[in-house]
Amino acid sequence: QVQLVESGGGLVQAGGSLRLSCAASGRTFSDYAMGWFRQAPGKEREFVAAISPSDYRTYYADSVKGRFTISRDNAKNTVYLQMNSLKPEDTAVYYCAANVADRWALRIGRYEYAHWGQGTQVTVSS
Questions:
Q1: CA neighbor of 24 nearest in space, from 5, 46, 45
Q2: Is 32 within 8 Å of 96 (Cβ atoms)?
Q3: Are 35 and 96 in contact (CB under 8 A)?
Q4: Which of 20, 82, 102, 123 is deepest in the core (most CB within 10 A)?
């Protein structure tokens, strides 16, 4: 079992940047594929970015490609989401997620993740 705690959300103006962090505890972090999802009011939770357990492969939703960067530090049991050039449509609650996977594996489907954090609010003003 792994526990996930997100931090780093807040209010930022359009064009600004934020870095989200997700700290994991409970099991060997490098066993887990990690992902970031977001959910805006009245909308389904959607995939944002994913990173493989220890091969560090990454994958992004088209809507954030070139603006967001996912990374991880397995020594610190933490995954990050660097968000640049933020837009009002990026406003949402952001969740990190984890699931055991092969070292090279990516998980991009919501139902491929068994463990979720509580979420952190990101609000981008125009």
A1: 5
A2: no
A3: yes
A4: 20
Which pLDDT belongs to residue 26? 82
Place of tokens 């406003």: 91
- pLDDT value of position 51: 98
Q: What angle do CA 77, 83, 85 make, to 5 degrees?
A: 170
pLDDT score for 27: 80
CA pair distance 67, 87, nearest whole angstrom? 10
User: For residues 60 and 86, is the Cβ–Cβ distance under 8 A?
Assistant: no
| Residues ≥6 apart with Cβ < 8 Å to 93 | 38, 39, 40, 119, 120, 121, 122
User: The dihedral of CA 22, 63, 66, 17: what is its sign?
Assistant: negative
* Cα–Cα dist 77/25, whole Å: 7
Averaged pLDDT, groups of 10, the chain, 126 residues long: 95 98 92 97 97 96 98 97 98 97 93 97 97
Evaluate whether 124 touches 86 at the Cβ level (below 8 Å). yes
